[in-house]
Amino acid sequence: MKRLLRFFDKAEWTAAVLSDFTAAVEAAAGRGQRAFHASLAGGRTPEPAYRALAAAPSLASLSGKIRIHLWVGDERDVPADSPFRNGRMIFEVFGEGAAAARWSSPPEIHLWPEGSREEACALYAREMIASMGEPPVFDLAILGMGADGHTAGIFSPEARAREPLALPTTAPAEPKMRMTMSAGLLKASRTTMVLVGGTEKLAALEAVLKGASVPLSLALGTRTAFYYLE
């Protein structure tokens, strides 16, 4: 099931993301889970929504009932202090932000390990299995989308038959060397939220909704909602 939600106001867009993220955490708690696991997209588009999540009293309260784990979905092979590092933004919002400090139990943030891409992918995969079991399944995947239809570090519309959980990948633009969770891992998530902004991405979004074979299509779960900010 795919739902398209269109917004012309950033505050309404952010409120919808917050509401549905909170609902996903509440559903996990209702299933009796002790932990909630979400993979997060990087980039500029989701940052305002993440800041709203970090500041939300609803999540601050829920964090006392269920442990919230936040995973960086893909990463650039650059130094840890580089502004191009997705984990840097996510950690600044959730790990260092004053709002997150008000949570009953601050979220546990899982950053990609440093070192060679191959070693980082292997270590990250082992960390996911240790935290979620085998095979690991995210309660929620937050994805973005480029104007070319890519998501996370997935730039090809073809998936391998037996993908690892995390793998090195190459982007068409700098920084080219990247690492990403696999399409299969993201697709297995219980719920998927795709955050899209800007008219330059509308054509790609419409193509995905019509079933086009683009990288994002490979990562969409059975319960997917698109949050499109005009």
Measured distance between first and last alpha carbons: 22 Å
CATH class category: Alpha Beta
Provide the β-strand percentage band.
Answer: 15-25%
What's the count of strands? 10
Count of individual helical segments: 8
Q: Give the count of structural domains.
A: 1
Helix content: 25-40%
Assembly type of the chains comes to single chain
The shape is: globular
Radius of gyration, taken over Cα atoms and rounded to an integer in Å? 16 Å
Sheet with most strands: strand arrangement: 1-10-9-6-2-3-5
CATH architecture annotation name: 3-Layer(aba) Sandwich
Structural class: alpha/beta
CATH level-3 fold name: Rossmann fold
What does this structure look like?
This protein is of the alpha/beta class. It is 34% helix and 22% strand. The protein has eight helices and ten strands. The strands form two sheets. Strands 1-10-9-6-2-3-5 form a seven-stranded parallel sheet, with helices on both faces. Strands 4-8-7 form a three-stranded antiparallel sheet. α1 (10-30) crosses α2 and α2 packs parallel to α4. The longest helix is centred in the first third of the chain and has 21 residues, at 10-30. 40% of the residues are buried. The mean pLDDT is 94.
SSE layout and pairing:
Elements: E1 2-7, H1 10-30, E2 35-40, H2 47-55, H3 57-62, E3 67-72, E4 74-76, H4 86-94, E5 108-110, H5 117-132, E6 140-143, E7 166-170, E8 177-181, H6 183-187, E9 191-197, H7 202-209, H8 215-218, E10 224-229
Parallel strand pairs: 1-10, 2-3, 2-6, 3-5, 6-9, 9-10
Antiparallel strand pairs: 4-8, 7-8
